[in-house]
Amino acid sequence: MSYQLVAYKTLKISIKEAIASTIEEHKETYKKDLDKLWEDTELLPGVRKIQARLLLKTIELLDRQDDEFEAARVLNTLAFYIYDKIVESYGGIYKLVASADNSIMKRLLGASLNLKIDNMPGDIDLAYMYPSLLKFFLNHVYVGGDCIKGYLPVNPFDNDGYKVENDIKDLKLKEALLFNKNIDSAEAKKEQTVSPAKHRSTLYGASSSKVSVPKTPAKDTTPSAEPVPMSNGLG
């Protein structure tokens, strides 16, 4: 299974529409204005407000970037990362009383990403996606993208109730887990390709545990029908 990235400009508009629709869901009198989304996210409850503003700030920063493919990968990854967080938030005891499908933001982000059974990021996709988002965060938070060198003068993700450091650490952990998982997967595939050869050598080689030993015919004790030479009496 492989995931097809949604083009940056298409996804950007779709995400803004999703945020506006989420605000409408929480405030019936809200009048959609995509140019005022940042201010209007104040109408959202805490977690959704943080998630919406993280998406909007990321879009603002990516708009300054020339590489549209990389911009698409970063935005696709962030949208899926938030989508996945919403799904996880409905786990545990909460799944007994509510479903993640109750979240309009989860549903709309899924639609924006065109998520389907046959178009869902798998381990191989995420092995490339998560590092892109991680690098994006690092480059906008730390000097030279390196936490050892300290913080940049301005943190663009400095938002009330949100710590980008938590997501950076989480993404780094996910990256490491996926790396190990993909190594195990590659090793398993290698074993599958070697196994048939081993199987054949077991069947036809000397390593077989059962060796067929031909039976020695029993000695025939029946008197021979051939004439026995008689002595001619000459000694």
Q: Which secondary structure elements does this structure contain, and how are they paired or packed?
A:
Elements (H helix, E strand, L loop, with lengths): L7 H19 L10 H4 L5 H17 L5 H22 L14 H9 L10 H19 L22 H41 L31
In short:
With 235 residues, the protein is an all-alpha fold.
Instruction: Count the domains.
Output: 1
Kindly report the CATH topology: de novo design (two linked rop proteins)
**Helical proportion?**
55-70%
Specify the overall morphology: globular
Helix/strand class:
mainly alpha
Average pLDDT confidence is 85
Rg (CA only)? 35 Å
Q: Uncertain spans, ≥5 residues at pLDDT below 50?
A: 206-213, 221-235
End-to-end span in angstroms? 98 Å
Give structural notes.
56% of the residues lie in helices and 0% in strands. The protein contains 7 helices and no strands. The protein has helices at residues 8-26, 37-40, 46-62, 68-89, 104-112, 123-141, 164-204. The model is unreliable at 206-213 and 221-235 (pLDDT under 50).
What characteristics describe this protein?
235 residues, de novo design (two linked rop proteins), 7 helices, 56% helix, disordered C terminus
